[in-house]
Amino acid sequence: MRLLTLICLTILTWLNTAAAETVVLGLNQDQVSITADFQGSELLIFGAIRRDKPLEASPLQVALTVSGPSSPVTIRKKSRVAGIWINTDGQRIGAAPSFYAVATSAAWQDTVGPALDGRHHLSIGQAIYPQDIERNDDSRFQDALIRIRTDEGQYQLLENEVTLQEQTLFKSRIRLPSNLVEGSYPIRVFLTRDGELVSEYRTNIQVRKVGLERFLYTTAHNTPLLYGIMSLAIALFAGWLASSLFALIRQQ
User: Fold this and answer.
1) What's the CA gap between 47 and 53, in Å, rounded?
2) CA–CA distance, 229 with 235 (Å, rounded to integer)
3) Is 0.70 surpassed by the pTM of this model?
């Protein structure tokens, strides 16, 4: 009986602590539409911190992540052999997000502790899962993937890019590039104190192709034969049209 009472008190204490500071979140859009002239978009994430107890002396920090659909990636290294550049080594990444942005309200080390990062995979490196177990110690390929996708705007580390006012209101802007992959994009918001988790909130936005882009995407994946016939017909028509225009120009 005493053990049961102790367990109940522990659970109640944990629930009270977990509910002491929670996130109320808002987004400027819950769906991104990819059209033929899509040049990227900006996602505004804003919210407030609801408290059921007085503010603690240690400052609260905010970290948030936005991630795209993950898929396997093979990274290859090219070397010059006998004057020719060829693939000499490589590694397969089991799952790498097509897009990943992480923003913090302070410097990384002041917002996210190593234990929190290890449990919830907040950093870009933690969000990528190697597949070749025997080669996990070789970080060259993962570093190369991060470098390439960072240069393309697909991976973003945004330290001090979450504005936190009066330890209560926060907001951040995430730039979504033009080469987004269609699918669901989870958004996670973490409240931390001294690098440890205080509270977590999750939601998601949808990225979808619309209009002509949606028609071509659906046709190519669901009816590839029809898509091939259409592509061939368009190519033939374009060739005929170009030939007719050149013939008309020569006559003049």
Assistant:
1) 19
2) 10
3) yes
Positive/negative CA dihedral, 214, 219, 224, 230: negative
d(CA 252, CA 241): 17
Cα separation, 16 vs 11, whole angstroms: 9
Cβ atoms < 10 Å from Cβ of 71:
13
Q: What is the DSSP string of 183-211?
A: EEEEEEEEEEETTEEEEEEEEEEEEEE-H
Q: 40, 176 in Cβ contact below 8 A? A: yes
**pLDDT top residue among 244 and 97:** 97
Instruction: State the burial class of residue 37 (Cβ atoms within 10 Å of its Cβ: 0-12, 13-18, 19+).
Output: exposed
Contact predicate 145/73, CB 8 Å: yes
Taking a C-beta distance cutoff of 8 angstroms, is the pair 156, 177 a contact? no
Phi, psi of 108 (to 5 degrees): -55, -50
80 to 17, 83, 89, 101: CA distances (angstroms): 59, 6, 12, 35
Q: In the beta sheet, which residues pair with residue 86?
A: 79
In the DSSP assignment, the letter for residue 132 is -
Count CB atoms within 10 A of the CB of residue 184: 12
- Please check the confidence at residue 111 and state whether its pLDDT lies above 90: yes
Q: What is the DSSP letter of 56?
A: P
**Residue 181 DSSP label:** P
